């Protein structure tokens, strides 16, 4: 909606008579709006021709720009740009041209040109409020804070409206926030901003709430909490009305910063009386209480304890306060609030931490939790609430607790199968909560295999029974009993990890597939299925699962890792490419999106949101996942295309890859992954810890470093290949070459260091909780030998470069070295290939067994073959000219039979032969695997023996097995295809 | 037992249990959220559980002409994670939005809801809302489902002493006819 943007950006509608020019422009706008760019260009041309006698741009600049927009949108960027510049150099001052140029520059991603445009316009029309404000916004878009400050002030001087003044103040705050030097912020920018606001306060010119908010922000950043507090409590604070409890919240914040515990306590107390469910105020109430106790604070003898009212300073008072709140809830007819009961447990927890004996006055935690369960056990959140305080129960009480809870669950008569079932959804939820608690307490984990299998049978029975309550559920709703199904899956996973019995895993997949058939919107089923298929090395089913999750925007950053970790590593290159694109599209739109709303925040005076938006943008730009997909995307493109559809050099250039440049924010990497997206009711000692998070980030970062160095090395290698040979190069070229090889050298030693760090990390053999982050590819990359093989191949290119400079004469040592490298690479590749041998899927004694690691290793092999072949291609480019000049020499020497072929040339020939051999071997292996996979008749498997799987469940399990089989085949086919293409490229290396 | 506070951009990273995967009608893009945060930050409130989980959020705005007595609060989105349903959280969030609209001098609060979403319609009725009019094919088709009508539901605020703003309009209107 181009016209809409124009009209709204013209915010302060000027209300003058419509410009006849506007009317004539309308058809062009209409065409552009409808995406009919060609017609827009034609229409613009038609009208432009009427003014043949004059220079087009001068006669009709706005039409000219509209034509440029049409050109830009039809992919003629260069033409569009020069047309636009023609108009821009005239420094137009008519709205139509300016706005159309603004749009054009934005579409060209050249926002800095807009600032130039309005700088000129403001010079020519210095009294225009509109142009000044456009100039301010143009600076805002590119984050030129200093210039914004000046533009805001100039605007205010032209039209003395408060918002303009405060735009300028806010720009000072932004200079403070973005200043590298915190001292500069504290001694210059912020004090200046403060003085500017104070001036307005003195002159009693403060009008809007936003201005008070900004004042508060400045004082807070300056650490002037006393002043901030006075301001909020004073007349200015009365303007803080939009947000609920705005003044109270700000006061509370300042009390905490200033450690004014009496005020903090009294205010929390006051707010809790008003709303006994506000959790944050219980926390501040307890915090302040204990601070006061530690300081033995006693109230002054005056009537009021402090400005906020009465202060509590003893445990007795706190106990009474909490007990009173609970009693009040008990008395209520309406739905009781959870807050007071939770506060009671929180208080016990804190008293226990302090070793304070008074907790008994609140009661026995076991009884309190039972009471809580009695009141809230039918709410799905009961487990989330109680989980926090389970540590208050000693382990010897756990079983008793479970039994007592069970007594509070109304179940029907015990049937033939030995189970009683709930009569309604409330009873079901209660029963479910007991199961969840028993799992969190670790009671399920201590069961032996037989016990766990019985538990599975029981949970399954409850699951199937509960389905009747959700018969009328919409497709988009969850089934009431879904959680039973998920828990069955968790117990199966326990059994699988403990016993290694893969049947448990197959049945787990079956039960989840069954669950999904009844509850097609259950994201937890999908996520767990996704995780299991990935662990099994079967990526194909994951694609559909992920897309049915319908992940949006930030989710590509928070859960995208589930997909991108496995896509490429399992050899599903097409799917990998697609999944990287999902994520990249989101990250790339972020930059554009945020700057638009930063500008809006200025317009609406939402000043506190401006740094927040910028921090948000930064958080996304520094995302680990973003850096990973960026790198993996390029590597993948090289592996699948370079030297196949276009040369390595062309590919590298098309990506704009520069080996010297490292755009990954190593020191500020943000781990935005949501590592607890999968529900877990595991006991505390099996949960994901902060240490796990740290280790996972460390591991991922090192792996990313390996990958990004590999990528940059490949870019380096590509440019090395481009270097003209020494003989016909002049001095500058020679320098160019050595610069390139020194980059290669530097990157190689960085890679070497990184691999050493990597080895130390993998030695730790960190195991994450099953439902936590997947391990990175680092460990298998190292153990397969692919990293070192790739590094030696790249190292070889350096030696070859040396040979290129030295020539064939007097280089026998170098030549021997190269030949040894050739041989060693063959050995390394051969070893790597041998690690790929084995059956990825096989049937043994009526059991289906997988070895997904073989697939991952095969991918490493293929990636390594790619790298080695690029080095081989570079070798050929070095050796070819050497060989031909040798032949010329030979001819001159008239058949001197004594000159044998230099070792490096014969060595190379031998090498390419061996490479061909290895690739053929690998292809045979892939073909063999494909054949044996196809030959596997899964239908012949007898399922369900001994584990009471119903016919239906067996059907789902079988379907899951089929998916895995098909996916393996898919991976093998893609890997085979790529290997074949690589084998073809090898042929061209012979000479 | 909840912590109610202003929604911030960082909450978008914790969204997975509420928003995601629920096929909510309200799957917005980042620009949409940022627009609300920039324009009506006070109307964007999030509820957080003691363990830090996001329980739900409400997002709204103030709009309409004061002169024509159409200045009002609008509920754009209201979501509660399945885990935290049946606790009265939606009612609490609605109450807050109404209070903010009261302070702004709004005449009423309104919202749109799918005609088929009986659970939601009933909940809003319990909270004092009534159907003001039907908007034909307000929700555009997705996933093979046809276009769907919406109820425009309203609740009068204290400024509308005669409760004029909620007198139902008998004839359905088209989406392009609503303001």
Notes on the protein architecture:
The complex is a heterodimer of chains A (991) and B (179). With 991 residues, chain A is mostly helical. Chain A is 69% helix and 1% strand. Chain A has 42 helices and 2 strands. Chain A has a two-stranded antiparallel sheet. Chain A is globular and about 115 Å long. Chain B is an alpha+beta fold and 179 residues long. A 7-stranded mixed beta sheet of chain B has the order 1-2-3-4-5-7-6. Mean pLDDT of chain B is 89; it is low at 19-26. Chains A and B meet through helix 19, helix 21, helix 29, helix 31 and helix 32 of A and strand 1, helix 1 and helix 2 of B. Chain A: It holds the Pfam family NatB_MDM20. Chain A: Non-catalytic subunit of the NatB complex which catalyzes acetylation of the N-terminal methionine residues of peptides beginning with Met-Asp, Met-Glu, Met-Asn and Met-Gln. May play a role in normal cell-cycle progression. Chain A: This is N-alpha-acetyltransferase 25, NatB auxiliary subunit. Chain A: Belongs to the MDM20/NAA25 family. Chain A: It is found in: Cytoplasm. Chain B: It comes from Oncorhynchus tshawytscha (Chinook salmon).
The parts of chain B where pLDDT drops under 50 for at least 5 residues are: 19-26
Low-pLDDT regions of chain A: 1-18, 52-57, 724-734
Report the count of strand segments of chain A: 2
For the largest beta-sheet of chain A, the strand count, sense and barrel status come to: 2 strands, antiparallel
Assembly state of the chains shown: heterodimer
Strand order of the largest sheet of chain A: 1-2
General form of chain B:
globular
Short structural summary:
The complex is a heterodimer of chains A (991) and B (179). With 991 residues, chain A is mainly α. Chain A is built from 42 helices and two strands.
Key features of this structure:
heterodimer, A: 991 residues, mainly alpha, globular, disordered N terminus, B: 179 residues, alpha+beta, seven-stranded mixed beta sheet, 3 helices
């Amino acid at each position: 909606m181009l016209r809409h943007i124009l009209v709204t950006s013209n915010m302060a509608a000027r209300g003058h008579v419509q410009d006849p020019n506007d009317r004539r422009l309308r058809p062009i706008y209409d065409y552009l709006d409808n995406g009919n760019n060609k017609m827009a260009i034609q229409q613009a041309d038609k009208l432009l021709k009427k003014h043949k006698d004059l220079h087009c741009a001068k006669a009709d600049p706005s039409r000219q720009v509209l034509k440029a927009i049409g050109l830009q949108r039809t992919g003629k960027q260069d033409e569009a740009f020069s047309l636009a510049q023609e108009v821009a150099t005239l420094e137009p001052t008519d709205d139509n041209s300016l706005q159309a140029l603004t749009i054009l520059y934005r579409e060209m991603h050249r926002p800095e040109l807009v600032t130039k445009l309005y700088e000129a316009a403001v010079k020519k029309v210095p009294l225009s409020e509109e142009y000044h404000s456009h100039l301010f916004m143009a600076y805002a878009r590119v984050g030129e804070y200093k210039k914004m400050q000046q533009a805001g002030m100039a605007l205010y001087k032209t039209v003395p409206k408060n918002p303009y003044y405060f735009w300028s103040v806010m720009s000072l705050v932004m200079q403070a926030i973005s200043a590298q030097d915190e001292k500069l912020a504290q001694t210059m920018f912020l004090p200046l901003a403060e003085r500017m606001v104070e001036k307005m306060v003195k002159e009693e010119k403060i009008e809007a709430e936003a201005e008070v908010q900004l004042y508060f922000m400045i004082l807070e950043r300056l650490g002037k909490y006393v002043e901030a507090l006075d301001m909020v409590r004073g007349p200015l604070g009365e303007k803080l009305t939009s947000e609920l409890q705005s003044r109270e919240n700000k006061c509370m914040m300042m009390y905490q910063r200033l450690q004014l515990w009496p005020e903090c306590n009294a205010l929390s107390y006051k707010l809790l009386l008003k709303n006994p469910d506000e959790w944050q105020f219980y926390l501040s109430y307890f915090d302040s209480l204990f601070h006061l106790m530690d300081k033995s604070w006693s109230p002054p003898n005056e009537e009021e304890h402090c400005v906020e009212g009465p202060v509590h300073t003893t445990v007795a008072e706190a106990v009474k306060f909490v007990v009173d709140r609970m009693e009040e809830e008990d008395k209520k007819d309406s739905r009781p609030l959870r807050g007071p009961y939770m506060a009671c447990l929180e208080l016990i927890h804190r008293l226990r931490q302090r070793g304070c004996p008074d907790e008994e006055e609140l009661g026995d935690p076991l009884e309190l939790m039972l009471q809580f369960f009695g009141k809230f056990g039918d709410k799905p959140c009961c487990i989330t609430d109680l989980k926090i305080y389970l540590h208050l129960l000693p382990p010897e009480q756990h079983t008793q607790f479970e039994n007592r809870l069970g007594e509070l669950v109304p179940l029907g008569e015990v049937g033939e199968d030995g189970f009683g079932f709930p009569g309604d959804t409330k009873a079901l939820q209660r029963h479910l909560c007991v199961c969840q608690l028993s799992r969190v307490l670790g009671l399920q984990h201590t069961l032996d295999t037989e016990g766990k299998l019985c538990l599975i049978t029981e949970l399954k029975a409850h699951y199937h029974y509960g389905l009747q309550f959700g018969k009328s559920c919409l497709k988009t709703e969850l089934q009431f009993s879904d959680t039973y199904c998920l828990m069955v899956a968790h117990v199966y996973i326990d059994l699988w990890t403990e016993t290694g019995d893969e049947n448990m895993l197959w049945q787990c997949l079956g039960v989840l597939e069954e669950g999904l058939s009844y509850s097609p919107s259950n994201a937890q089923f999908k996520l767990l299925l996704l995780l299991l298929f990935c662990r099994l090395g079967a990526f194909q089913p994951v694609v559909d699962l992920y897309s049915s999750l319908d992940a949006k925007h930030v989710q590509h950053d928070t859960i995208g890792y589930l997909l991108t970790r496995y896509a490429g590593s399992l050899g599903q290159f097409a799917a990998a490419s697609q999944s990287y694109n999902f994520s990249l599209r989101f990250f790339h739109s972020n930059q554009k999106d945020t700057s638009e709303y930063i500008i809006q925040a200025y317009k609406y005076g939402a000043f506190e949101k401006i740094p927040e938006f910028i921090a948000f943008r930064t958080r996304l730009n520094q995302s680990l996942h973003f850096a990973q997909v960026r790198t993996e995307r390029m590597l993948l493109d090289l592996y699948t295309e370079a030297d196949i559809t276009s040369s390595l050099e062309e590919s590298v250039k098309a990506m704009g890859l520069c080996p010297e440049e490292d755009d990954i924010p190593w020191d500020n990497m943000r781990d935005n992954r949501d590592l607890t997206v999968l529900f877990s009711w595991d006991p505390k000692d099996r949960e994901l810890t902060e240490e796990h998070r740290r280790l996972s980030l460390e591991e991922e970062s090192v792996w990313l470093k390996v990958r990004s160095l590999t990528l940059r090395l490949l870019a380096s290698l590509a440019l090395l290949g481009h270097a003209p040979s020494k003989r016909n190069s002049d001095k500058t070229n020679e320098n160019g070459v050595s610069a390139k090889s020194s980059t290669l050298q530097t990157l190689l030693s960085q890679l070497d260091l990184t691999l050493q760090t990597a080895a130390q990390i993998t030695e730790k053999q960190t195991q994450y909780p099953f439902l936590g982050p997947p391990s990175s590819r680092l460990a298998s990359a190292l153990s397969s030998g692919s990293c070192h093989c790739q590094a030696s191949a790249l190292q070889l290119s350096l030696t070859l470069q040396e040979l290129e400079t030295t020539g064939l004469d007097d280089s026998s040592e170098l030549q021997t070295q190269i030949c040894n490298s050739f041989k060693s690479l063959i050995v390394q590749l051969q070893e790597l290939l041998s690690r790929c041998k084995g059956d990825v899927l096989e049937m043994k004694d009526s059991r289906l067994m997988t070895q997904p690691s073989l697939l991952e290793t095969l991918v490493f092999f293929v990636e390594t073959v790619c790298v080695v072949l690029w080095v081989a291609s570079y070798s050929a480019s070095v050796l070819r000219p050497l060989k031909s000049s040798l032949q010329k020499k030979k001819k001159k020497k008239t058949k001197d039979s004594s000159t044998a072929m230099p070792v490096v040339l014969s060595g190379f020939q031998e090498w390419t032969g061996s490479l061909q051999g290895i690739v053929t071997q690998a292809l045979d292996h892939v073909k063999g695997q494909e054949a044996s996979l196809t030959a596997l008749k899964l239908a012949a498997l007898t399922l369900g023996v001994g584990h009471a799987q119903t016919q239906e469940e067996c059907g789902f399990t079988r379907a899951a097995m089929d998916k895995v089989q098909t996916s393996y085949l898919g991976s093998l086919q893609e890997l085979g295809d790529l290997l074949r293409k690589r084998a073809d490229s090898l042929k061209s290396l012979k000479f | 037992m909840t912590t109610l506070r202003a929604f911030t951009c960082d909450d978008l990273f914790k969204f997975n249990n509420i928003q995601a995967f629920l096929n909510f009608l309200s799957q917005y893009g980042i620009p949409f959220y940022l627009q609300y945060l920039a324009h009506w930050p006070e109307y964007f409130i999030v509820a957080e559980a003691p363990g830090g989980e996001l329980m739900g959020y409400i997002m709204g705005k103030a709009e309409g002409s004061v002169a024509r007595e159409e200045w009002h609060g609008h509920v754009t989105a209201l979501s509660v994670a399945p885990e935290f349903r049946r606790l009265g959280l939606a009612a609490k969030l609605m109450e807050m939005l109404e209070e903010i609209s009261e302070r702004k001098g709004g005449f009423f609060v309104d919202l749109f809801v799918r005609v088929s979403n009986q659970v939601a319609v009933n909940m809003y009725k319990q909270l004092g809302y009534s159907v003001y009019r039907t908007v034909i094919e307000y929700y555009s088709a997705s996933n093979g489902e046809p276009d769907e009508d919406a109820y425009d539901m309203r609740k009068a605020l204290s400024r509308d002493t005669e409760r004029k703003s909620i007198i139902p309009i008998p004839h359905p209107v088209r989406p392009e006819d609503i303001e």
